Amino acid sequence: MLAADHIRKKLGTLPHKPGIYLMRDRFGTVIYVGKARDLRKRVSQYFQPSRRLGWDLKFKALIEAIADFDFHVVRSEPEALLLEGKLIKEFHPRYNVSFRDDKRFLLLKVNLNDPIPRFTLTRLRQDDGARYFGPFPNSGALRSTLALVRRQYHLRGCRPLTPTERDYKHCLYAHLKYCTAPCIGNVAREEYLGQVKAACEFLAGQCSEMQEQLAGEMQKAAAAQDYEHAAQLRDMLADLRDTTKKVSRFERVPYSLPLALDPEKDLVELGQALGLAAPPLRIEGIDISNISGTFKVASLVSFHRGRPDRANYRRFKIRSVEGQDDFASVAEVVRRRYTRLLKESKVQSLTSKVPEGAAGGEGQAVEGGPAGQAVTASSPPAFPDLILIDGGKGQLGAARAELEKLGLGRIPTIGLAKEFEEIYRPGEKEPLRLSHDSGALKLLQRVRDESHRFANTFNAQLRLRKISESILDEFPNIGDRRKAALLKKFGSVQRMRLASVEKIAEVPGFGGKAAAELKAFLDARAAP
Question: What gap in Å lies between CA 462 and CA 315, rounded to an integer?
Fold first, then answer.
């Protein structure tokens, strides 16, 4: 089957510019993320009839699954590479393999609060008071430029946090005069700090003089027929330009959930399919995310009139559940969420005429809440018209039991099981199956998939926060045993920062000098 009419029309709007594209299936799920030097040429290739005759079964399956696509234009191919990696890590498309692990592009960092600051490479941006440059898509160019910067500004490349005269004796950088050797007092800290700040300005883009100098030296070497040296300078100049090229940071992903052509129609269809008195204008979806019982979290997303209402998204850390128990986790989230809404509605009822149980709105009064009342956008978060649980009978039963205890059994609640897209309803033995082309089912899938994405994102954030404990790895010669002893005694890096030198010295493997150095190391990396 050739490309649909709406895809052909969208292909005609693609520019001949670099960017990224997101392929989506008929449910709106992102199934592939790619980058392109020329968006029009690259994306059009997917829909050429000859591509369906290829031998690659995976590629043919991808083409058959594409129902729509999005695209985003960037300024250069390196920017496209960076954004592609970011989107793949966020959406985990089933047809992407690269970038799906936790590996990230390299960053360059320097902490100006260190006794003798030094530039290091890292892959995680932490809130430690350091200054970061990057990310850089070309790690080889970055390493070459870092070596050039160290030589140009006479900076140290040794590992110790506070190098001493003993380190100087074995330091190749100092003996080759690459470094001004602040460790033995050749320069004052203020002077050395000036060298580091000059290097920071260079990395921030103030490098035109250096580029002109290298270009001039390259031309002189070529004129003198010293072609080997000219080639080295040429490569150095190319790496410098590659590293210092301006790129966007993409703090927010330029992607929104796919919307139906007629959300109001989908709501009406959903209300009729579930036998509701009115279309569910506000739907809340709940999903649990954990990995082998660790980092147990949950998400609650809110949709209003078929569209995401991100101001009312909520996320939870599961507190009362031991091990991997999705039923108990669902019960805890429902209990905490709607107990809070009950308290907020009671407080609101004391200060306004808005009745408890009214349905929420966005900018204007709407109808259709559990109590059938109207309310404006100035109201607190309202009770939903429908609660969607990601799961089957067990998860649904746990949610209903908690709602009954709270006196909120009147709120319609359903479960959506992912394997066969079956809808479970309280009191019904058999699940409801809607057509996969049904707008009502697609609406429920959007709510379910968004709650799943939001829960997984929170889970990933917690895992990264745990990984940030590895800031201790930057402390020279600490080793796994001493790091484990520190974390066992203090529990976290934050508590370690608050401890005195004497308390740190009580840890096995640490004496007074090592404890003082670790204390200075942690203080230098404290968040500003």
Answer: 12
pTM of the predicted model as reported, rounded to 2 decimal places: 0.47
Phi then psi for 257, rounded to 5 degrees? -60, 145
Cα torsion 419, 423, 425, 429: sign: negative
Q: How far is it, in rounded angstroms, from Cα 250 to Cα 229?
A: 38
**Structural domains of the chain sorted by starting position, each given as residue range(s) with its CATH number in brackets:** 5-91 (3.40.1440.10), 107-243 (no CATH), 263-453 (3.30.420.340), 475-524 (1.10.150.20)
DSSP secondary structure letter of residue 396: H
Hey, which residues does 424 pair with through a beta bridge? 415
Q: How confident is the model at residue 377 (pLDDT cuts 50, 70, 90)?
A: very low
Amino acid (1-letter code) at residue 240 = L
CA atoms within 13 A on the CB side of 128: 27
pLDDT digits (tens, 9 = 90+) for 35-89: 999 999 999 888 887 766 666 677 888 888 888 888 888 888 877 887 888 788 7
Q: What phi-psi label fits residue 499: left (phi over 0), alpha (psi between -120 and 50 degrees) or beta?
A: beta
277: left (phi over 0), alpha (psi -120 to 50) or beta: alpha
